[in-house]
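Support request from a user on the community tier.

User writes: "When I paste my structure tokens into the form, the page sometimes reloads and wipes my input. The last time it worked, I copied everything first. Here is what I submitted, just in case something in the input itself triggers the reload:"
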């Protein structure tokens, strides 16, 4: 495609690059074992385990106007109106489903949000990277139904399965952007992704059921079903989803790769809550998911087909959360929860093509055990306080080699104040202290402000810092492959960040809404891949100098800065549009751009009501000015691309809708990652019901 859109962007200068910088101090590690005032975790419990009587109207990519007042649960410890949070929060799902017509995976829906980008190495099920404002997935804390699911056994502690998480049946997703370690601890350097797998119920005293089935190109078949009911003091819900696809070649077909790589995913979610008394509520929620996918063999120059059906990955995830809520009937509320997350991953490539990696069988297991407590108090009408503490233990196992197990633990305490001196001003401050068994201590903070000078204008800003403690796999992993070995580095230091953003939300008219946010984030001690140093402690660090690959902290500051713009306009009662645009500039300490970060990303959606029953959508995605270093060094420029998708919805009744979706209408040939394939023109039909 041609050059990207010509946009004049005023970037936010690093106004507070040193603010909070001194508050992160790593000390010598010690032996450490490690209504309005409803808590964030309590509302998260309601979203996943029982009916919620006032489901907020939340803007999705297809809406033609922004709702500035949805209740969000991720920005603070207490549910708060979005416009009062002072934060940049994106919301998908409004009690219906998260994805749009033809969406098989969650990452497809996420990539339509401003400030969020995705790259996938082939068809559904293959490795997918989610980036918030250009920062890698390891900088995002990910929660599913209140359970933290960052995988301790993954290469950098990222969740690692957005390529396998189906969109079917999901009820709501919140994406909180900017450093959030003051509330969420390690990993929340760039933001938080909060997924709720069950839709919200409309009637707290009734029953709600939702179902959907979809099939189409590449042998795609997907279906989901959810059920929720309240029986007196007992609330229950569960959901099932299935997705499968024959796929296409992970290696680009234009390079001669023809073998289709398939995908299959199944998920069960459930919740149960019991109102034991007027003051006490107890319950549990959890999920179980299994996914299988095929991939292509990797070489130094990119992927190749290899032996058909030989390269396969499997993943099993289990999550369980037990909780107790206590409402004293006065100013105080309390909640305690115990959660477990376990993931088993395996990859096999038993035969190889010339020039590819060696044959391998790898098996990994990650486990996260976590205990949370928090209490909130309404001091008066203007001030509410929350205090909390948490403890978690991370375990990483490489079951394919003897002794491949390691663990770390972390203790944290935090406090948050929400102060509203006037009806048009909200100030939110948070402070957290962590004690890590490997690194010692870190202190992080956040300050956010929201000011509404008129009913049509909201001004907001925030400054915060964050940190990410390296996970066991980065510290202790051993992968002695003859050609492509990898060893962890126990001398790694935590990565540290400072982020600042300024923005406004403006109702230009009754039919037009504009949102703009300028952001800047600096990351120190960035963990990067590197050859083994010549000087190395061979007693504690098994690595051949200049030969084996490892990780190290990069000196200096890596920066991520840019501008987000969202526009919604209704041309008439039957025609509207939404636009989301992101400008991103990244630079290492040496002044080099980071690969796979597009400078310009734009998503435009037009929606028209053709009749009382028939609605059409046309969307355009444009990605421009990017480079990739897959198979080449330094990174080489990649072609811009533009995708056009179309869809039709037909309301069969008040509770059932049939739909048709055509993705990549003009069969654009493009790559998200150099050497890897993408979908051509694809057609999907489906039926959804809500009753």
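"...and here is what came back when it finally went through:"
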């Amino acid at each position: 495609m041609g050059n990207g859109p010509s946009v004049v962007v005023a970037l936010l200068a690093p106004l507070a690059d040193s603010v909070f910088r001194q508050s992160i101090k790593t000390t010598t590690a010690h032996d450490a074992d490690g209504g309005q005032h409803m808590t964030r975790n309590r509302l998260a419990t309601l979203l996943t385990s029982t009916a919620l009587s006032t489901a907020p109207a939340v803007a999705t990519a297809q809406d033609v106007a922004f709702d500035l007042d949805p209740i969000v649960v991720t920005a603070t410890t207490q549910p708060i109106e979005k416009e009062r949070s002072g934060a940049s929060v994106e919301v998908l799902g409004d009690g219906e489903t998260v994805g749009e017509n033809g969406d098989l995976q969650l990452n497809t829906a996420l990539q339509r949000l401003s400030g969020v980008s995705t790259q996938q190495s082939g068809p559904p099920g293959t490795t997918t990277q989610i980036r918030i404002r250009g920062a890698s997935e390891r900088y995002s804390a990910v929660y599913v139904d209140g359970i933290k699911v960052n995988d301790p056994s993954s290469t950098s502690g990222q969740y690692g399965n957005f390529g396998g998480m189906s969109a079917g049946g999901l009820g709501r997703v919140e994406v909180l952007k900017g450093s959030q370690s003051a509330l969420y601890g390690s990993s929340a350097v760039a933001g938080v992704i909060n997924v709720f797998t069950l839709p919200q119920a409309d009637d707290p005293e009734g029953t709600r059921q939702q179902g959907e089935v979809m099939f189409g190109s590449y042998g795609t078949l997907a279906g989901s079903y959810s059920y929720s009911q309240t029986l007196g003091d007992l609330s229950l819900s569960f959901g099932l989803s299935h997705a499968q696809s024959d796929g296409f070649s992970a290696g680009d077909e234009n390079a001669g790769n023809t073998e289709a790589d398939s995908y299959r995913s199944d998920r069960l979610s459930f919740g149960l809550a019991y109102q034991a008394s007027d003051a006490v509520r107890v319950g549990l929620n959890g999920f179980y998911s299994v996914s299988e996918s095929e991939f292509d063999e990797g070489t130094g120059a990119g992927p190749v087909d290899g032996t058909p059906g030989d390269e396969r990955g499997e993943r099993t995830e289990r999550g369980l959360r037990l909780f107790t809520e206590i409402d004293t009937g006065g100013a105080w509320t309390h909640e305690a929860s115990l959660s477990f997350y376990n993931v088993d991953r395996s990859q096999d490539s038993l035969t190889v093509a010339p020039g590819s990696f060696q044959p391998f069988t790898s098996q990994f297991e990650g486990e996260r055990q976590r205990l949370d407590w928090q209490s909130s108090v309404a001091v008066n009408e203007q001030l509410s306080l929350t205090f909390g503490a948490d403890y978690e233990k991370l375990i990483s196992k490489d079951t394919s080699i003897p002794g491949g197990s390691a663990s770390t633990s972390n203790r944290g305490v935090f406090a948050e104040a929400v102060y509203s001196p006037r009806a048009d001003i909200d100030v939110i401050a948070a402070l957290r202290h962590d004690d890590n068994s490997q690194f010692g201590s870190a202190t992080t903070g956040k300050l956010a402000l929201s000011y509404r000078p008129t009913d049509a204008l909201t001004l907001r800003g925030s400054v915060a810092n964050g940190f990410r403690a390296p996970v066991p796999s980065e510290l202790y992993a051993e992968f002695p492959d003859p050609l492509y070995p990898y060893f962890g580095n126990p001398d790694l230091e935590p990565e540290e960040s400072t982020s600042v953003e300024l923005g406004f939300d403006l109702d230009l008219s009754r039919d037009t809404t504009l949102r703009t946010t300028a952001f800047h984030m600096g990351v120190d001690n960035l963990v990067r891949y590197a050859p083994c140093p010549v000087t190395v402690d061979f007693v504690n660090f098994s690595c051949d100098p200049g030969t084996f690959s490892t990780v190290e902290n990069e000196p200096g500051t890596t920066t991520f800065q840019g501008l987000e713009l969202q526009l919604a306009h209704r041309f008439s009662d039957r025609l509207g549009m939404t636009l989301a645009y992101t400008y991103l500039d990244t630079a290492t300490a040496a002044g080099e751009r980071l690969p796979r970060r597009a400078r310009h990303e734009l998503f435009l959606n037009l929606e028209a009501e053709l009749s009382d029953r028939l609605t059409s959508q046309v969307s355009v995605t444009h990605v421009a000015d990017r480079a990739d270093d897959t198979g080449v060094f330094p990174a080489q420029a990649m072609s811009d691309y533009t995708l056009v998708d179309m869809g039709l919805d037909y309301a069969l009744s008040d509770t059932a809708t049939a739909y048709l979706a055509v993705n990549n209408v003009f069969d654009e040939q493009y790559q998200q990652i150099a050497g890897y394939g993408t979908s051509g023109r694809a057609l999907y039909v489906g039926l959804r019901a809500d009753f």
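Agent notes: The reload is a front-end session timeout and is unrelated to the input. Confidence is low (pLDDT under 50) at residues 1-38, 42-65, 534-539. Helices lie at 40-49, 106-110, 181-184, 472-476. Escalated to web team.
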